[in-house]
Amino acid sequence: MFNKLKQFNDLRKQANTLKNALAEEIVEIDNSAVKIVMDGNQDIKTLDIKKEYLNPDKKKDLEKKITDAIADCIKKVQRKMASKMQDMGDINLPGLK
């Protein structure tokens, strides 16, 4: 039983280490309408909408550009996360092997 608790504690430490490392990673996407900065934990730090898209006539286009930019940020973060996990070595997460 104590062995399971130790394994759980080790796993929690690894997860916290990974989370802290990812918090320092920053990705940025800049398309014709928006600029998004996201950290490695997928928290959006800034969203800058370009002035010419603040027009009601461009609402649909702006929504699409924001959605696309967020999706691109998430993909970049996931690639960085995978790389970070490889760099950290063997992280034993149940269900991922």
CATH second-level architecture: 2-Layer Sandwich
The coarse overall form would be elongated
Strand proportion, as a percent range, falls in 15-25%
Low-confidence stretches: none
The number of domains? 1
Mean pLDDT: 87
Helicity range of the residues? 40-55%
- As laid out across the biggest beta sheet, the strand order is 1-2-3
CATH topology: Ybab, Chain: A
Enumerate how many helices there are, as a single number: 2
Distance between the termini: 23 Å
- Mind summarizing the main beta sheet? 3 strands, antiparallel
- Number of β-strand runs: 3
Superfamily (CATH H level) name: Nucleoid-associated protein YbaB-like domain
Classification by helices and strands: alpha+beta
Rg measurement, Å: 18 Å
H/E series:
HEEEH
Instruction: Name the CATH class.
Output: Alpha Beta
Question: In words, what does this structure look like?
Answer:
54% of the residues lie in helices and 18% in strands. The model has no long low-confidence stretch (mean pLDDT 87). The chain contains two helices and three strands; from the N terminus they run H-E-E-E-H. It has a three-stranded antiparallel beta sheet with strand order 1-2-3, covered by helices on one side. Strand 2 and strand 3 form a beta hairpin. The protein is elongated, with a radius of gyration of 18 Å. The chain has 97 residues and is an alpha+beta fold. It has helices spanning 2-23, 59-88; strands spanning 26-30, 34-39, 44-49. The protein has one domain (2-88): 2-Layer Sandwich (Ybab, Chain: A), CATH 3.30.1310.10.
